Amino acid sequence: MDNPISNLELLPSRSLMRSDGPLYRQLADVLRQPIASGAFPVGAELPKEADIAGRFGVSLITVRQALRNLEADGLIRKRSAKPAVVAAQSPTVNLAWKFKNFADMAAYTKDARLKIKSYRREASPVFHKIFGLPVGESGFCLRAVLEVGDQKKAHVTSYLPPAVGQQLTRKDFDDVLIFQSIQRHLGVRLAVAHVTIKAETAESTIAADLERPEGSAILAVEMLYQSSDQRNIEFTIARHPADIFSITYDAPNDLS
Fold first, then answer.
1. Most buried one in 118, 120, 139, 171, CB count within 10 A?
2. Longest Cα pair distance anywhere in the chain, in angstroms?
């Protein structure tokens, strides 16, 4: 398994077509096969990212996103400047979010579905605080539950200013990532997400939606999405059961 050519030969032969969906998801499915079959046993190295990209005619960005998906499933362990290593033959339940960029958000929501509860105009202090609307003026609010299988992964509340929200209907939220739906339907590119994490306890409605006892511990992840011209476009609060959710990130030592 030390020979990168033999490693490549263990990968299934398959053409990746954009018409079949996102390339990184197709590539992730291809890479799962030899891991599940044991052709790449636990502890074995996958081929180098550049070799995978060359074999399937995709970019390094596509390869890295596919590997993030496999890592989110617990199948591989990525290493700096080295090929990824197989960590498990079958996926594990993993609700940790390794947060660095928007691609990591996409990886975290893989295989999830967004069950929308409501989308309507509401009044909330959030619209004054986040979007600068006059006190008491209403905006649009989407309430949903993020699910994976039978598990309730998060209670999601998204606030949109009137100028954005009035251009959307409930059926427009057809992506598990709300910001993706906004980008696609309105042609607005969101450039950055400011993330804040808070500890809360579950009030009755959220506890019921997450199938947790009222008053149980919650990790609330607040995400303020801004456009490239620094307009606040979306403010989302994802409330996760604290016993099954964590966030990890790399902190490089930049002290001299």
1. 139
2. 66
**Which H, E and C letters describe 222-234, residue by residue?**
EEEEEECCCCEEE
More confident residue, 81 or 172: 172
- Rounded CA-CA distance 102/104 in Å is 5
Class of domain 4-93: mainly alpha
Phi, psi of 162 (to 5 degrees): -50, -40
Pairing of strands 246-248, 96-98: parallel
Kindly state the DSSP code that residue 184 receives in the 8-state scheme. Answer: H
What single-letter DSSP state applies at residue 170?
G
Asked if 164 contacts 186 with a C-beta cutoff of 8 angstroms, the reply is yes
- Amino acid occupying residue 115: K
Same fold, 4-93 and 108-248: no
The fold of the 108-248 domain, in CATH, is: Chorismate lyase (3.40.1410)
Q: Which two tokens stand for residue 96?
A: 């940790």
Question: pLDDT digits over 178-233, tens only?
Answer: 999 999 999 999 999 898 999 999 999 999 999 999 999 999 999 999 998 889 99
- Nearest to 40, CA basis, from 15, 67, 9, 61: 9
Domain regions of the chain by residue span: 4-93, 108-248
d(CA 43, CA 86): 5
Instruction: Report pTM.
Output: 0.62
